[in-house]
Fold these 4 entries.
Entry 1:
Amino acid sequence: MPGAINHLCDSREPEAVSEMFGAIAPRYDLANHILSCGCDFYWRNRAAEIVAGWEPKQIIDLATGTGDLALLLQRKVTGVNLTGADFSNKMLAIAKEKGLAQTVFADILRLPFPNDSFDCITIAFGLRNVQDWPAALGEMLRVLQRGGHLLILEFSLPQSSVLRAMYRFYLHHCLPLIGSALTKKKNAYDYLGESIERFPNGEDMVGLIKRSGFAHACVQPLTGGIVSIYTAEKT
């Protein structure tokens, strides 16, 4: 029942979001590449370059999905022990098939790791789907070591009023139709636009990260602000 799923996803209930992403898993990568016009390769590559510069040894990639960012980090970061975590087994199965060495089924709000387990946490296009953003950031802070780094790659809204209007038209009128043609799951792409509109942008997100206990939080807009990279540290 698409209407019922949309209603649940409006409140980001974990079971509904997991079910929705599981349903589109087989064509998720193809849809991402087409809907972003290939820009998703650039976005993830920029994120991986930043992480590689930190030279981490223990990375957890949360909401890893089909593993695209994690696999890139696996190649770019020398000597890293990397784990991809997600709460969709269907997504994790594809990530494993693609070569992601370590995966774990996990809910971001209840991570199954001790305090101070990782020196780097990454999450790409996943935080906005979580039911409680401050609680999720709090869990990330808990499992991150002091001196460790956080990187969030997420959709945002352009600052330019003209670009924002064009992007919103694409987001709400074009993207759901193309996504539906590719995956047969239009509700998932209606939800995508709604979730992007609802998620904090730019300095609002930086403020949320800081209030969650992280230091040195900053934002780097990409592609006119359609996507943003947020970075921070645990001190």
Note: The first helix runs from residue 2 to 10.
Entry 2:
Amino acid sequence: MNERLPTLVTITQPIMLKRRGVEMRIVVHDGAAPSQPLDQTLIDAVAKAHLALKRLTDGSKQSIATVAGNLKMDASDLSRILPLAFLSPRIVELILTGRQPPNLTLRSLTRGADLPIEWSQQEALILT
């Protein structure tokens, strides 16, 4: 009798145990970068950029200075963060969940190179 033993295979996957009521669930990590603390400054800037864009394009003919004043910020600061309203949804999702690259900061987005308009180019620039 010459039986072959099965080959041992090891699979490594990050998991978390989560309590759900009286039971425990194994939650498999999705393979993305581990979450880090949320960058509230970056999140606030993205939110302000979207709010400012809405106010600038709602037909009320408000100037950047007026919108900036209403948001309690300087017009030059608003001009600097306004392009964040055009970030790709994937980048925004990563920011909102704390999974953005560690080097992605408000400063790097607003003081660095100009952001491309095309989302795939943004993602190539920021996420690689």
Note: The radius of gyration is 22 Å.
Entry 3:
Amino acid sequence: MAAIGIHTNLAEVAGKLVQKLNKLKDKEYLLRPVCVDMIDLMTKRIHIDGIASDGSAIGTYNSAYLAYRQKYHQRTKDTKVIVSLTRQLENDWAVVATKNGYGVGFKNKFNLQKARWVEQIKDKNIFSLAGNELTHAKDLLTSLTNNALK
């Protein structure tokens, strides 16, 4: 009687699958790149375009404050609120470690207080993700996940 032997590379395949799945648990691989992208997108939206998280304009500067911005801080005549006078706020954005991974925040707590103050004064969510930013984050996560599982 002849014996039939079966040889597989199941252990190798399983090992590679475990490596791919472990990559998905890596906060550096998944979350950090998303946060870096969010800094760029949010900086443009808030500090260049003057847009709140809901897509509306943050507001307009009154003429007295606009004159002050121009005289002492070499700012433009544009009246749209861009939440920037000395550029400290937008230059302080950072990828910050959290207990669950990473987020976008400020290195200096005073800048966090300024951001909250502006939101309160303008009665708008400004420093939350906008719809297109959230969509971009989800798309990037999907892309990174697909690349990890290839």
Note: The chain has six helices and two strands.
Entry 4:
Amino acid sequence: MRSVLIQQVYPDTEYVQMLELTQAHHKAYCEKHNIEYLAVFDEVFPHDIKLGGYGKIKLIQQAKENGYDSIIFLDTDAFIRDLDANVCAAIEHNKIGACWHRIPQLHHWNVGALYIDNCAETKEFIDKWLSVYPPPRDGWNEQGVFNRMAMEGKTVVTLSDKWNATFDVSMVPDAVVLGFHGQGDPQRRVKIMTEAFYTLFPEQKVQGVAEVTNDG
């Protein structure tokens, strides 16, 4: 069984600081759990960044084509908190797993942490998701497309909040992954994420950008 954890960030944005913060942390975690790690500092899917993170969908599609059995995608504003838990345990057979976020703007499956079993059913979902570009101008971009598709079928399943325990939204005491999605502008998000990371892992130091992998 081959598993991969993927993260991707747009160059020349403040989100790069987030991936620089956690890259070495996630690489070590993946080595411990026999998971391949892919950190991508590239746009991948050329588009207007304001139209959403279609790069993540392209990378997931590529991972499927490359034969990975289990695919985990974490946005750069999330990191693994429980180093003993294996994120592959969240993956359900023939499904895409995501956590349900209950916020005033819209209750939705949050695509900041996705847990994907590589099969025909999920491949069809990912291919269709990627094909809906540009997304409708509803303010939710690829997130809105994902939710509409999820509600039309049975490919997406709701996971325990511990797989994407998000600051001020869905925090739980047994969190495996901590998310900071939607926490204001990038500067604020970087600040609160960095504070949380160093509180949990004070021994960590910010690493420079290591080898940049780009399969796009």
Note: Residues 16-32 form the longest helix (17 residues).
